[in-house]
UniProtKB/TrEMBL annotation:
Keywords: Membrane, Transmembrane, Transmembrane helix, Transport
Protein name: Amino-acid permease RocC
Protein species of origin: Acinetobacter stercoris
Protein's membrane topology: Multi-pass membrane protein
InterPro entries the UniProt entry points to: AA-permease/SLC12A_dom, Amino_acid_permease_CS
Length: 472
């Protein structure tokens, strides 16, 4: 039986080469691993310092709600069309082929830019242990390791990501439990006689800097939740996506919300908010190190350095996976030369992986130039592009559902339906748009902001020149 639906045609070509090797356990850890990283271990302190404790809690709850709305939209699409090209494919089908092309490249850029930051940050941390070894050598070692895990097989990649993520999850859970014990006076904290309880949360007033910073820090917060959408990319390589994808989305978002909000409450209750922010001294300024040290855990700094290196490598691992799958899907849709969809014997897109690895080059350059500036700008680019991708997911689901109803079909016929249509996609889109605007308000982020806009324009122009006529 032949299908005339382009989704089915692509689906047949997708399912054949990429193996369905992931279970719910892998999917949940992939999204937790993508999300728990520098955004939580280092960025959380920055948010508290800018907004005050209550503001930070509200910012992360709002960030979690935005992420949840986007993931509900993604869940509906990923169950209906489990594609490895994910949001690029949905944007192509439900917004327009030019936008689909742009979104796929943008998501590729997000993770490729992030690869540079992950390798650089991990190398800088290793240098604190081994000052005589140069940053670029560590960068190369980490790059070879991550490349090896991705090239081997989807199963080995998923398994490695599971264990790398587990280190972070155990750290965050331990931090919250030990922190709560200190808050209630079960453990002594920095030699205090009485339990700190929660008075630090409002010691400087409810919103010491006013309400505006809650919105200006939304880019950091949204970036902290980015990675959850990896579930959509992995749907094409997941066993039984109709059952596993919705389960993974619910499990991941609620756990992240508990982890992030729990972490913020513990840091805010135990440390004055001025102490939570970052200074230039690297990992030692992480609020996690300060709290563990005050509780009396020996080698707190070394433990957290190890955990943060693991977190960075885990994010690079899932980033390389996501970016290479995007490139592979462009090639399958004949928007890139066919060589990019070439697979290794183990079923991984080998050429796409090699080309994506070149995205780590800014990490190699950063020792000669200013690592802090490169890091901040690459992070800004990654956060901005991620939010644009999230907006496309909301719009794709909105258009898909409208088409579905126009065809005379009902919500009950969907295998997984996002609730409260059309409120969820509309709100998700609006909040993401506000976050984008907040980037333009930050002077330090402006170069990255304009760089992203130029990249988006270049995608549309290149699509119009090279592919529009081919596809018609």
């Amino acid at each position: 039986m032949h299908s005339s639906d382009p989704a089915d045609a692509l689906h047949q070509s997708n399912s054949r080469p990429l193996k369905r090797a992931m279970s719910t356990r892998h999917l949940v850890m992939l999204s937790l691993g993508g999300a728990i990283g520098t955004g939580l271990f280092l960025g959380s302190g920055e948010v508290i310092a800018q907004t005050g404790p209550i503001g930070a809690i509200l910012a992360y709850i709002l960030g979690g709600l935005i992420a949840y709305m986007v993931m509900l939209c993604l869940g509906e699409l990923a169950v209906q069309f489990p594609e490895s090209g994910s949001f690029g494919f949905y944007a192509n089908k439900f917004i327009g082929p030019g936008t689909g092309y742009m979104i796929t490249w943008l998501y590729w850029l997000t993770w490729t830019a992030t690869l540079g930051t992950e390798f650089t940050a991990a190398a800088l941390l290793m240098q604190e242990w081994f000052p005589q070894v140069s940053v670029w050598l560590w960068t190369i070692i980490f790059a070879i390791l991550i490349f090896g895990l991705n090239v081997s097989s989807t199963r080995l990649f998923a398994e490695s990501e599971f264990w790398l993520s587990l280190v972070k999850v155990i750290t965050v859970i331990s931090f919250i439990i030990l922190g709560l014990l200190a808050i209630f006076g079960v453990l002594s904290f920095n030699g205090m006689q009485s339990a700190p309880l929660f008075h630090n949360l409002t010691a400087q007033g409810w919103f010491p800097q006013g309400l505006v910073p809650i919105f200006t820090t939304m880019l950091i917060v949204n970036f902290a939740f980015s990675g959850t959408e990896l579930i959509g990319v992995a749907a094409g390589e997941t066993e039984n996506p109709a059952k596993n994808v919705p389960k993974a989305i619910n499990a991941a978002i609620w756990r992240l919300l508990i982890f992030f909000v729990g972490t913020i409450i513990v840091i805010s209750a135990l440390l004055p908010h001025q102490m939570a922010g970052l200074d230039a001294s690297g990992v030692s300024s992480s609020p996690f190190v300060t709290v563990f040290t005050y509780i009396g855990i020996p080698y707190a700094e070394d433990i957290m350095r190890f955990v943060i290196i693991t977190a960075l490598l885990s994010a690079a691992n899932s980033g390389l996976y996501a970016a290479s799958r995007m490139m592979w899907s462009l090639s399958v849709q004949k928007q890139l030369p066919q060589v990019f969809s070439r697979l290794s014997k183990s079923g991984t897109p080998i050429v796409a992986l090699i080309v994506t690895m070149f995205g780590a080059i800014p990490g190699l350059l950063s020792e000669q130039f200013a690592p802090e500036t490169i890091f901040k700008n690459l992070l800004g680019v990654a956060a901005f592009t991620m939010v644009i991708v999230w907006m496309s997911i909301c719009l794709s689901q909105f258009n898909f559902r409208r088409q579905w109803y126009k065809q005379g079909r009902s919500k009950a016929e969907l295998q997984f339906a996002s609730p409260l249509f059309p409120i969820v996609p509309i709100l998700g889109f609006i909040f993401c748009f506000i976050t984008c605007i907040s980037m333009a308000a930050d002077k330090e982020m402006l170069p990255g902001f304009f760089g992203c806009l130029i990249f988006i324009a270049a995608c549309y122009i290149s699509y119009a020149f090279f592919y529009k006529n081919k596809n018609q």
